[in-house]
Design a protein that fits this description.
The protein is an alpha+beta fold. It has three helices and three strands, in the order H-H-E-E-E-H.
């Protein structure tokens, strides 16, 4: 979830910044490279938000099933197939998303 919050805040703040810059009269006088970079900045965060929401859906799909005395974890992969394991996969998935937390 760290990636989600970072990219959501990034996208929001850069969108506000671009809207503010477009309203400035001096923005028209800037170089084309500056205009392209400033306009593209909010769109950098969108794929990260989308990927984080996919990971969240994967985490929420995990359920515990008790079969003859032992617990098995069953989840739905992003492609729609079901997987199962005797160990909980969520800690490993959570460690993969620790880009900004450590």
């Amino acid at each position: 979830m760290y990636t989600f919050w970072f990219s959501a805040i990034w996208t929001t703040l850069t969108s506000i910044g671009v809207i503010y810059l477009w309203q400035e009269p001096e923005f028209v006088l800037q170089t084309p490279l500056f205009k392209i970079v400033m306009t593209a900045m909010p769109f950098v965060g969108v794929p990260f938000v989308w990927d984080s929401l996919r990971k969240l859906r994967l985490l929420r799909s995990v359920r515990e099933v008790k079969i003859s005395g032992h617990t098995e974890f069953v989840w739905t992969e992003l492609d729609g197939s079901e997987k199962s394991s005797e160990t909980d996969p969520r800690p490993a998935w959570d460690n993969e998303d620790r880009n900004f937390a450590d």
